Give the backbone structure.
Amino acid sequence: MMHYAEQSEEDLNMVIEVCNNMKKKLSVSGEKTVSRTKDLESFVGCSLPKEVEIHPPKPSSTKGSGKRIKGGKEMAIEKKEKRARHCKVCGGIDHDSRNCPTKHQNNVS
C-alpha cells in the first residue's frame, strides 16, 4: 500500500489513518480473547478438574534381592568340591543304599 502512496502526502496520510482505524478495531476485538486455560480446554475437549485425584507413587527400594547369579564355570567348581555319594551295598558313586539298582535287582528275584 505504501508504494502506491509514496509520492503524494495526501495518500500517505490516508494510509496512516486507515492503519490507525484498523489498529483501534483490532484492539477492541482483542479484548474478547479467551483465557489460556479455556483455550486449552477447548482444544483438548475436556475441562480441568477441580481436585487432583491421582497422586505420584511412593518411592520404592531398588537395591535388589542380594542373591548373585552364578555362572556355569563357578557352578561346576562348586559341584566338583562336593563330596560324591557312595553306595554301601555296591560301592558305586552318585547313589546311596536307599536307591541302589543292584539292591532292587536282588529283592525282585
The longest helix spans residues 9-30.
